[in-house]
UniProtKB/TrEMBL annotation:
Alphabetical list of InterPro entries matching this protein: Bact_Lucif_Oxidored, CmoO-like, Luciferase-like_dom, Luciferase-like_sf
Any one cellular-component term (Gene Ontology): cytosol
SUPFAM superfamilies: Bacterial luciferase-like
Organism whose genome encodes this protein: Arcobacter caeni
Pfam families from the UniProt entry: Bac_luciferase
GO function terms (MF aspect): oxidoreductase activity, acting on paired donors, with incorporation or reduction of molecular oxygen
Stated name of the protein: Luciferase-like monooxygenase
Coiled coil regions in record: none
Residue ranges annotated for the Luciferase-like domain, each copy included: 24-305
Family under the similarity heading: To bacterial alkanal monooxygenase alpha and beta chains.
PANTHER family reported for this sequence: LUCIFERASE-LIKE MONOOXYGENASE
Length: 332
């Protein structure tokens, strides 16, 4: 396998780790973006979440604008913008502005989940009873506002209309796979938190894909959690921050990204461990050689065109080191 044909990308939630301020979290993510640009990663994406003590990426387009100013060539984008939280015109304007600032570097990844809890949905003026069924129509409006056609109409995104901004659909189920296939858009599957439907979603996407002006052939990116270290023991230790993240999310306990621990058994019950081990079964934790082999296996299983890596490591230097080790074994 020629690994150079399979780009690697970065998903960043701009984690607010235990002991760090929000300003420090943003600066840590900025340093990460600068580092992975040098390491050879293709994209750096930020995900929209609201009302999480451990995530600083709520104002996604603002974060991207800052990161864009601090980097030179890496593609930056949303992984994703939760479109039903917004008016499509506003997203077209925001990403039209980003594309105007950083030409040919912007990706617009879209999801339909709220990225938050029910009470915060109300604060976002989003109908908590909305099941996302209006997402296809919102996508249609957004595509229109970014099109050349919109320039001839009374209401248009300025900046935005006529800009060639690639749209990606993100999903953790088969719904977005079907819609991405129907619309002829690239598809990203969220195996980093919802691996159960991965195989079905990829098969459905490939089976139903229709070519579009943006994309002639199906294109799949798989997002997974990866932690790479010099030894398997160190990687497993660092990964306890990821395990704690899932543990506290399952409990509804809003915490910052916790420091690693040598004793997970003191934190979770047996049934909790079983559930979290199942949810993180696609996560890759190990030495560069282990990571390389498992990434190759994942690509062989899914036919992925790109891999996006989320790295839930507490210490920002260890996080950068993880991506560096991956890049050395993958690109060199």
């Amino acid at each position: 396998m020629n690994n150079k044909k399979i780009p690697l990308c970065v998903l960043d939630l701009v984690p607010i780790a235990q002991g760090f301020s929000i300003s420090q979290a943003i600066e840590n993510s900025t340093k990460l973006a600068q580092a992975v640009e040098e390491f050879g990663f293709t994209r750096y994406w930020v995900a929209e979440h609201h009302n999480f003590s451990g995530i600083a990426s709520a104002a996604t387009s603002v974060i991207l604008s800052y990161i864009g100013a601090k980097t030179n060539k890496i593609r930056i984008g949303s992984g994703g913008i939760m479109l039903p939280n917004h008016a499509p015109l506003v997203i077209a304007e925001q990403f039209g502005t980003l594309e105007s600032l950083y030409p040919n570097r912007i990706d617009l990844g879209l999801g339909r989940a709220p990225g938050t809890d029910r009470q915060t949905m109300l604060a976002l003026r989003r109908d908590p009873n909305n099941d996302g069924s209006d997402f296809p129509m919102m996508l249609k409006y957004l595509q229109y506002y970014l099109s050349n056609e919109a320039g001839n109409k009374a209401v248009k995104a300025i900046p935005g209309y006529g800009l060639n901004i690639p749209i990606w659909l993100l999903g953790s189920s088969t719904f977005s796979a079907e819609l991405a296939a129907q619309k002829g858009l690239p598809f990203v599957f969220a195996s980093h938190f919802a691996p159960d439907s991965m195989d079905d979603a990829v098969k459905i996407y490939h089976a139903n894909f229709k070519a579009s002006a943006q994309l002639k052939e199906p294109y799949v990116m798989i997002c997974i959690n990866v932690i790479c270290a010099q030894t398997n023991e160190e990687a497993q230790y660092l990964a306890t921050s990821e395990l704690q993240k899932f543990l506290y999310l399952n409990r509804g306990d809003d915490k910052q990204l916790q420091k690693p621990t040598k004793d997970m058994n003191s934190l979770w019950q047996e049934w909790e461990e079983k559930s979290i081990r199942h949810k993180t079964r696609e996560s890759i934790w190990g030495t560069p050689e282990v990571v390389k082999k498992r990434l190759e296996n994942l690509i062989a299983r899914t036919g992925a065109n790109e891999i996006m890596i989320n790295c839930m490591i507490h210490n920002p230097e260890d996080r950068i080191k993880s991506y560096e080790l991956i890049s050395k074994v993958w690109f060199e």
